Amino acid sequence: MRFVPTRVHAVVDYLAAGVLIGAPILFGSTKKDARTWLPVALGIGTIAYSVLTDYELAVVRVVPMPVHLALDAANGALLAASPWLFGFADEVSAPHVAFGLFEIGAALMTKSAAGDVPGLTAA
Fold this sequence. Notes:
Blueprint: H1 6-26, H2 34-50, H3 65-85, H4 94-109
Helix pairs in contact: 1-2, 2-3, 3-4
């Protein structure tokens, strides 16, 4: 059931991207491997496609909302699986899994079209 408005999702996107980019500092990671660079790369990517998404807080609206949500889900799946994919599950996995599942959940619960901006289609 999709009940999260796209405007709320947009705010969460930018906040989540900031958390992902800051995650290595927040969690004290000094390693220069996938546990550090993957969240940063996904955060930068989230900002990049968010500013291009067809929703309220975009700069240029070219990425359809369903594509954005698919990218969010893919990011979440990669982040959640990354401790095992990149071999650091024995050292740290909870933040990656938790945030990855959060991203998947957000993608599944968000409306697939913006509805409160003139010129955008309603969900």
